[in-house]
Design brief:
This protein is mostly helical and 225 residues long. The protein has one domain. This is Serine/threonine-protein phosphatase 2A activator.
Amino acid sequence: MDSVVSEDHEYLVPKRAITSVEDMQIWEKSEAYFEYLGFIMALNEAVKGKSLSVECPESDVTKGMVSLLDKLDVWIEETPPIEQPQRFGNQAFRTWYKRVKEGAMQLLQEALPGRFHRAVPEIMLYLSEGFGNSTRIDYGTGHEMSFIMLMCCLFKIGSLLEEDKVAAVTRIFNRYLLLVRKLQLTYRMEPAGSHGVWSLDDYQFVPFIWGSSQLVGLYLCVLLL
């Protein structure tokens, strides 16, 4: 999973391209779609049989991304829920989200070495979109996907390397999950849509893929005991 982006690559701010069923069919045949699936499967293989506490290399970028998420956690504490009549969707989330969106560039610049700062205008949208919708005050698998795409981009530009794959799941993504769960509980965020039988959880999807891989071998050990 080495970098495939050349030094003279031109970075572009992402734009929404899927607005219809027809667009979804194009997306499912696109290079980006298969890159996304390939990324999930590569990390799935990397964490097979490995617990969250497994010892693994933790690069400066890994630590930087965890620190970034730690900072966003502090911002939640600094933005408590407000008193309001409706039960769900506390409007204080909009204040927190605005701070994230406005600070996304600086947050990523602090997390990444200077040589990767050229990529920040392109990848920072995946960061800010990874925590929910500030209009509806909801969170769902599409927001989770946005953060996964951010992680994928970090590998594509070469800031995360092959040896960072385990830490990407057990350190970065795990910290992300703790953060978004805190957002959901603190601001009473509603699920972004209902998946019914298509998903085990209204908020998250990928943890069931990577988590099941982490359990490979564990069940057999239990049986042997």
